[in-house]
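Incident log entry.

Two folding requests arrived from the same account within the same minute. Monitoring flagged them as a possible duplicate submission, but the sequences differ. Recording both here for audit purposes.

Request one:
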Amino acid sequence: MDKLLSELNRLYLLPDSPAAQRGPGPAADLVSGAGLVRAIAIPFRKAPGADAQHWEHLCTVANGLQADFGFPAPAVSVTSTGGFMLWLSLAAPVPVADARRFVAGLGLLWPDTLPPADTIGVPVELPPCPNAAAGTWAAFIHPGMGASFADESGLDMAPPAAGQVAFLEGLDSIAPGQFSAALARLETPAAPAAAPPPLAADGLLLEDATLEDIVRVLHARGIEPTFRFTLPR
């Protein structure tokens, strides 16, 4: 357990936050007395009748943060009542307001994928911890196994502490410059999209269209384009 607490402190906890003093628990407050956080814990809850859509949303965000912003891989946990949590570790603390602005910006980048920004900074399940009412556990998991938990409500028993440590000890934190650059990028107004080529009454003006424009218009009409050419004899 000492090694687990060491990893949680290395990645997510500030010394004067309630969570650092109490350790894992079902309602861990990650915010310091000065209103700072080192963890951005983003919940992805299952919507009724949506199958594994919440897991797909998490993958979109996790992969995008690494590919588009160069962030290190985040941790993933399964919650005790169903759903997932994506854990971003910050090397330097930031105000809760900045963490919320960051998540709000991600919501504009990937619409209908993230929860409201005001879910950031509220007490969360800090794994591994039990839900006394449900009899299940919140726990960190290997991201490659996430899809198998999409319909589950936590773990049926306490996860081995050594396994939890193994999921965390290889993770790195987001450097201060990385986070500030990402936040600035997300809050910079996007350049206006190029206007689509003009349309004639009966379709696209081919003289003004690119191949991508033609394919887009055909797809809009439910036509799958097939491109053929004839070799000269």
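Request two (distinct sequence, not a duplicate):
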Amino acid sequence: MSGGLDFEGWTCPVPLRDTPTVVMGHGGGGAMSGELVEHLFLPAHGTAGNTVLGDSAVVDVGGARIAFSTDAYVVKPMVFPGGCLGDLAVNGTVNDLAMAGATPLYLSIAYILQEGTPLTEVRRIAAAAGAAARAAGVRLITGDTKVVDNGSGDGVFVTTSGVGLVAAGVEIGPHRATPGDAVLISGDLGVHGVAVLSVRAGLEFDTAVSSDTAPLNGLVAAVLATGADVHVLRDPTRGGVAASLNEIARTAGVGVSLEERRLPVPGGVADACSLLGLDPLEVANEGKLLAFVPRDDADRVLAAMRGHPLGAGARRIGVCVPEHPGMVVARTALGGTRVVNMPIGEQLPRIC
């Protein structure tokens, strides 16, 4: 590994939680994000506080089950190994719909452009978004564009919303996690976060690390086609696997037990995390999914995942247990256990 580190402008990964102003940790997908939503946004929106919160919502409309999702993307740099802001935004919303078991159909996209941004950069991002939508089999049908003064933004920000259909009989959500469920993951951890960081910090590794950004709706369709009673699907983006598993455990009131030796952490990710003191379980992913399925269904779901290009590295990493409800623990290679906490703030700001 080579390359100098520039620590100028880095943000503390655990900012103070008692603060009168917005800090970077509020956008990290961890405990601070949850507190912001719970104590500020939900009270402001009244009845929204009575809904089950997730990356997408499923509602009944005229006899059809509609999944709806919206998300904002603020990646820095906008272009990184394996992708860019445009395909990341489309894939992210496609994946949020797919995690509800929906077939994504339509997308809306809004661009906020900073004055002075080269049109070549904007064109590259827009072209990548269009290509990603075609690859995922969804249509971009509406959108918006705004421009802010030079210095009021940072290049390009993108917001996407998506709509999909959920088939009859499909019921997927964090509340369905059940003791005895096998916990599966579709492939290597942390590669998106490290790919972005490698450009931002000028890091080089013995093996190249590229983002895993990809649409997961095809992989989800392969899983559902097995006929397995899939309880939970989640793409572990901000906050990584640690945040996703803690959210699921708390929502369902169950425990999760992981086997560290089973976690697929590639060499470049392990090197970066060792150098910077990061936990691979907390690093963002953009093309991986977690699945909770009954133990008896685990082998056929794994086979279906491995039969799809985006699930070739799928493996079983743990089990859902009745003990320590609301907590995630990991058994170490030495036979001990450690608590895998919900991340508080943001390890890597502006990552997705």
